[in-house]
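Assemble and predict.
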Amino acid sequence: MKKISAIIAALLVTAVSAVTVFAAGVNDNERKVLDELKTSVEMQGKDMYWPEAFVNQAENYFNTIDMDADQAEKIIAVIKNGKEQLESTGAENIAKCTAEQKKELMTTLTDVVAPINGTASYDKTSGEVTLKSGNGEVIFKAVPTLVEKGSNKGEGINGKTTDGGVIKITGASADLSPFVLIGAAIVSVIAGGFVFAARKRL
Amino acid sequence: MILPIIFCLGILLITFSVIALTPDSIKSAAGTVFSAAEKDYSSLYENIFVPVNESDVVDTVKNEKGEPVIKAEAVKYPSYGVQFGEVIIKGCGIDCPLFMGDGDIALSNGAGVYYGSFIPGYGGTTLIAGHNNTYFNGLKKAERGQEIIIRTSYGNYKYKIRETAVKDALDTSSYDLSADNENLILYTCYPFDEVGVSSKRLFVYADLIDGMAIEKNTAE
């Protein structure tokens, strides 16, 4: 839990301190942070990792900023500290953390983004956590989970099996509630019609 | 026998008017069929896409293998939610804007690159989502051998469809986000005529046949 906070916090620290200029490419400092993000955290004796997709999100974000050595050093320290804190929760995965720990995560995230007027939000329906910088730019958007090495599937905060939010719902996008109401009305009316007809015959 | 029918229609009309017939519900219902035109999000996203021609000169450097790659400084790397290109599949009738990120705004206006995958030319997996009732409806016509073109401000990329497959949405073997070779995956909900949430997706896998790589690592 704490590691999640720390890693996300690290990304946000980057958002605050890094100069947002035209800068595609990942420099050596950013590469060191990415390497640290790929290290394991021991959860109940088992090595667990961020899904590859989460690290890729950081890499994409790093491609839009320039990070210097000092910033990278601070971020790596935050990640390492968070790793120890997460291991101390005794949980098997994020989903297994207590409600209090999950609440603590969101509080931490909110506190972290406050200085940049950023936002941390949690969507109960999808289980996604979204972090935005002060200018509204999305830094991280995923269903937080840890996975075993070589796997991409874990358990989300809401306890459902998740791929971390990789594959989206890409069907009909509209709210279906009107159709549900209409459908219910049609069924009711047809049923009523049958009753009416049956009574007339009687 | 006509009486029950009149009764049914009358009650249906009254029920529908009272319960469901509100301006919002009409718009929402219409959106299922015409969702591409339902809302105008054009002011909600940034567009950095400026098409480049084949003849345009791009700044390049040599990579460690001595091959020319697009200089990092010449690429304006897209942030989340930004339109940075377009996807064209002539054989499927698809020609739509391409966004970084696959959030609601992106998918209401085109196709979106999953933020945990990479942009074309980056040397990894590019995973692109699109709605099956709008921009990616044409994927139903996708066939092996068809050409996919992705145009961006830093270069144009051509891919050839290798395979199509219907898989479970949570089947993480459908993609490899740690791949170190350029590959393209498009997907949409399946089946196409299903209304509501589907657990299946149609995946279209394609290999790069033309397009220059981007310089990845830069000096501090």
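Chain A is about 50% helix and 10% strand.
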